[in-house]
Specification:
This protein has 681 residues and is an alpha+beta fold. It has helices at residues 7-51, 55-76, 99-112, 151-154, 159-171, 179-196, 199-211, 213-263, 265-292, 302-316, 330-334, 353-363, 382-394, 408-421, 454-457, 460-483, 504-539, 543-574, 583-609, 619-630, 643-679; strands spanning 82-83, 91-93, 120-123, 128-131, 134-135, 146-150, 297-299, 321-322, 325-326, 341-342, 404-406, 491-494, 497-500, 636-637, 640-641. Helix content is 64%, strand content 6%. The protein has a four-stranded mixed sheet. The chain is globular and about 105 Å long.
């Protein structure tokens, strides 16, 4: 297969090559200077020793001679660095065990015109990748790649989609022009090694400095010179990285075209659009069991459960299901994204899913597809391999031998119960999923003067207002970062118009006015909703109960801000514990921390007495809170932190944050559930 590369690909390739050449020139110049410095330091050291031989001159001479060698060692150390991939989480499979899967891979390899993988591994998650143990020498000598296949991906794609995904991965290595990306990647690794991977080098020169005070003088000088070299390399790293990432984005488009020629545009497009939902489903199952580990419960087959959650969430979001898989559309993934801001992200390694889908639509390569079975059927014993990977996933859990498996039916019952418990009634149509009732005076709201229906109150138009508001808030925050130079861009597009950084202030002022208008509109919608339910409550003689529910929520909403501020304050006050801090400063910081702990302990006591929180407080949380409250914990003694006491502190802080968020959610849910109950009375 030989696919013509685009003009943009050629342009980015040229830029990448130029960046490599520039790096080589800079590196050679640095190397020559280092060699000259080494020769000079050796000659100087020799002169010092021989001019007046003494213990002091011997130390100074050797120290000076070592100066140049350390600079050279720093510039050459990347050659010996090898990146070894951790394979402990992977399971190797062979052709003897999985002939059908290997035949498919062989078919793709031949069509793409690349090499068959050295080894093929299964992982537990939702991905596929080609990897190899890389080093500096891999730029010059061919290295066979390994293929990693995530079972969470196989489990949520059809055979044709899976074929397209694998063709995409192999497509990265099928074209000679794409090897430039590999060179740029390795140059980036070289610079990264010299900038950030210096632990063993620092240990080496520190050990040398510890031998003699005379040696340490020249070690300090060497470190200063190395810091200057790193400053130059950092500038090079930024320049090369921008070019590499620009090329990387073009490589993704190119690999997509390879995949489309092998399996068709539509299968790759559908798998791309489903990927986030597949990943979310997988993580939802993991989160479910993370909460169950305290009960010593694990999954029997996490992938059967992933499939259930995938389709369950699709149905909840009105996504069409075909061949037992959701068909996610571009509208589905963008319907709540109403941002008007477009920034070209020069630091992104991949194009956006939207851009990749548009490119696949443009290609529109159609391939005949007769087999729409799930890709998991490619395995000889799908259920067994799913169970095997599931067991491996849970084997890393402490005391994994004590865990008891539950079957898929029990998982479904528990998951649905948890989902409903942590969501709002469907009659709200998602209106409250990302908003809370805005504050208003419930005593000034009269009966509704017009006949409303619940369907009209929570229709698409009102929900769109919510997401317009959210989009404006998000856009404002990003543009503020551009104004403050946290995000470095020269220009950006907003609402179809191009702006430069000097125009951010006037644009922010305009957006803030729009936000205020929308906020008033949303508050009016909330008042209309209240009036609707007030009419229902009045008919039942429960208008005071509805007022009380709203007042309770509004009061807690105000209190929540204070509780959140307390959490932020204590986290900020405790941050010194994670840093290297002088002892006198530690004592001062601990004194301030203790002052804030007074309020934290008071709030924790309130949580323990809260009726709405009691079902949320597990035995483990209660036990840790009791340990925290019963005594004045000492966190530092005899120049050392007391880790066991710090563990109690940080668990208490994290549990506090979890419980105030749960209390907020449950207070809101109590109000919304009560409103719905008025409909059936």
């Amino acid at each position: 297969m030989n696919i013509e590369i685009s003009n943009n690909f050629k342009k980015m390739t040229t830029k990448a090559i130029v960046s490599i050449v520039l790096f080589l020139i800079v590196y050679i110049l640095l190397l020559l200077l280092a060699i000259v410095l080494t020769i000079a330091s050796v000659i100087g050291g020799f002169y010092i020793i021989t001019s007046h031989f003494h213990f002091i001159t011997l130390g100074l001479g050797i120290g000076l001679a070592s100066l140049g060698f350390f600079i050279l060692a720093f510039l050459f150390k990347f050659i010996f660095k090898k990146h070894k991939t951790d394979l402990s989480h992977l399971t190797e499979i062979t052709k003897e065990n999985e002939p059908k899967l290997f035949n498919l891979i062989n078919e793709i390899v031949k069509e793409v015109d690349t090499d068959f993988p050295k080894k093929i591994y299964l992982s537990s998650d939702v991905n596929a990748s080609v990897f190899y143990d890389s080093s500096f020498w891999s730029m010059f000598f061919p290295i066979k790649k390994n293929l990693q296949i995530g079972l969470g991906l196989v489990n949520t794609t059809t055979e044709q989609e899976f074929k397209a995904i694998l063709a995409h991965e192999f497509g990265h290595f099928s074209q000679k022009s794409m090897k430039v990306g590999s060179y740029v990647y390795n140059v980036n690794q070289v610079i990264f090694n010299m900038l950030y991977d210096n632990e063993s080098f620092r240990t080496m020169i520190q050990n040398w400095a510890n031998i003699s005070g005379y040696f340490s003088i020249f070690v300090v000088i060497a470190v200063k010179i190395i810091e200057g070299i790193q400053w130059i390399l950092k500038k090079m790293y930024e320049y090369i990285n921008i070019n590499y990432l620009a090329l990387s984005r073009e490589m993704e488009f190119h690999a997509d075209e390879v995949a489309a020629n092998v399996a068709g545009s539509l299968p790759l497009k559908e798998s791309l659009l489903r990927m986030d939902l597949s990943n979310h489903s997988y993580n939802s199952v993991l989160n479910f069991y993370e909460n169950k580990l305290a009960e010593n419960i694990k999954s029997n087959n996490i992938y059967k459960e992933q499939s259930f959650v995938l389709n369950y969430l699709a149905k909840e979001n009105n996504i069409v299901i075909k061949n037992n898989l959701p068909i996610v559309t571009p509208i589905d993934i963008s319907r709540f994204n109403k941002s008007k801001l477009i920034i070209k992200d020069q630091w992104a390694s991949h194009p956006s899913t939207e851009d990749r889908v548009l490119n696949l639509d443009r290609l529109n390569i159609i391939k005949e597809t007769t087999n729409q079975e799930l890709a998991i059927s490619l395995f000889t014993s799908p259920n067994e391999i799913q169970k095997k990977i599931t067991n491996k996933l849970f084997s890393i859990v402490e005391n994994s031998n004590n865990l008891t498996s539950i079957n898929t039916d029990n998982f479904i019952i528990d998951y649905c119960r948890e989902y409903e418990k942590n969501g709002f009634n469907k009659k709200y149509n998602g209106f409250y999923d990302n908003k809370n009732p805005n504050h208003f005076d419930v005593n000034t709201v009269e009966n509704s003067n017009k006949t409303e229906t619940i369907e009209h109150l929570f229709n698409k138009e009102n929900i769109d207002v919510i997401y317009d508001y959210i989009a404006l808030e998000n856009d404002k925050n990003v543009i503020k970062k551009i104004e403050d130079k946290v995000i470095s861009v020269k220009t950006f597009d907003y609402d179809g118009q191009k702006y430069n950084t000097k125009e951010t202030r006037s644009l922010l002022s305009k957006i803030e006015n729009e936000i205020e208008d929308l906020k008033n509109k949303i508050t009016q919608i909330d008042i209309t909703i209240y009036a609707f339910f007030y009419d229902l409550a009045k008919k039942k003689g429960e208008e005071s109960k509805l007022k009380s529910a709203y007042t309770t929520f509004f009061n807690y909403d105000k209190e929540y801000n204070k509780k959140s501020e307390l959490y932020s304050n204590i986290i900020n006050a405790a941050v010194f514990i994670h840093n290297v801090t002088p002892i006198e400063q530690i004592k001062s910081h601990l004194s301030k921390l203790k002052e804030i702990e007074v309020d934290l302990k008071k709030e924790i006591k309130n949580i323990l007495e809260s009726e709405i929180c009691k079902p949320e407080i597990s035995e483990a949380i209660k036990e840790n809170f009791d340990l925290y409250l019963k005594e004045n914990l000492v966190y530092f003694n005899h120049d050392k932190y007391i880790e066991s006491k710090l563990e109690i502190l940080f668990k208490s802080i994290n549990n506090y944050a979890y419980l105030i968020s749960r209390e907020y959610f449950l207070t809101k849910k109590e109000l919304l559930d009560y409103q719905i109950s008025l409909l059936s009375k």
